[in-house]
Amino acid sequence: MIPRGLLYTEWKKNQWLFLLSGIFLIAANPFMVYNNYSTYQGCLNNQVLQDCEFTLSYTNGSLLSLSWVVSVVIAVCLLGLERTKGTMDALLSMPYSRGQIFQTKFWLGAAVIIVSQAIGYGAASLLISLLKPSHTYDFDHVSIGVIVISFMAYALLMAAGALTGHIFAQLLTAFTVTVLPFLLIGLPAANLEVVFDISVGNQFSFISSYIESRLFVFITPIGYVFNDWIRERDLVLIIPAVMSLVFYLIGYVSFLKHPNERNGRFFLWRKLDRPVQILVIVFAVMGFGLFGYGVTNTMFGYLAGMFFGAVIGFFITYFTVYRKTKHM
C-alpha cells in the first residue's frame, strides 16, 4: 500500500520533472504523425514534385526511440540524485518503511512513463483515423514496444540506484548490466579463439556471430536501444517485459535489505565491492588482450594487452568502488 502523504511528497518534490517528462512522452507519438502529414502537405503544395502519398512508417522509430532516455532521467532523479545530494537520509527518517518508500518512488515514476505514452498512443491513433494515411507500418508494434522498453530501462536504472550510492555509480552499474550478457559470453569465447586458435573464418568470429544472432542480441538490454527489434515478431517484447520484472524485484529487495547509510560509496552493500572489482579486472584483461591481439596479431600483443588491462581495471575499481564521493 502506497501512503498518500508519501505519494504527495514525492510528487511535489519532482513535479516539474514529471510534468515535462509527461509532456514529451505524450507529444512524441502524435508529433510523428503530424510531422509526416506536414511533409505530405508540403509535397502537395510543390508543383514540381509528383506522386505524393501520405504514409506512416514507424520502422525507424524516430522521436519515439528516445523515450527510454526520459526513463533514465526520471530514475536518476528519484534515486541517484537524492543519494548524491545526501537527501535520502531525510526521506528514510520519515515514518514510512523502506518498502513503502521504494514502491512509491518506483510506481509513481512508472505511472508517468506508462500512462503518458499510452495517452500519446491513443492521441496518435485518433490522428491516424482523422487524417487517414494510405499506409501505416508498424504503428501498434512500435508504440507498444517503446512503452515496454522504456519501462525496462526505468526498472534497470531504479535497480542500479537501489544498489549504489551516487549518480555515477548508478549509471555505470546500469550500463554494465546492459552489456553484461555480451561480457559474459562474447569476451570469453573470443579469448578462447585466440588462445586455442580455434577461430573459424574471420578474426573473433564468435563476436561477429553474437552480434548477428537475434537471440543473443535481444537478451542483451542495450540491443533494444537500436531498432532491430522492430523487424522481429511481437513476441520479442516478452524478453524486455521479463527483464523489467527481474530488475524491479532486484531493486525492491536491494532497497529493502541493504544498508542505506553508506552515502557516497559506489555500492551500498559492502559485500559487492570485492566481487565486482574482480569482475571488472577480468573483463578489462580479456578486453584489452583482444585489443592488443587485434592490433599486433601476435601473442605478445595479446599478453601485453592483458597486462595493461589488469592495471587499468585495478585503478578504475580503486577510484570508483573504493573511493567515497562527497555530497553535492
UniProtKB/TrEMBL annotation:
**Signal sequence span per UniProt?**
none
* TM helices/strands, residue ranges: 16-34, 63-81, 106-130, 142-164, 171-190, 235-255, 276-294, 300-321
Q: What does the UniProt keyword field contain? A: Membrane, Transmembrane, Transmembrane helix
Per its UniProt entry, which superkingdom is the organism in? Bacteria
Q: Would you tell me the protein name for this molecule? A: ABC transporter permease
Organism name: Bacillus siamensis
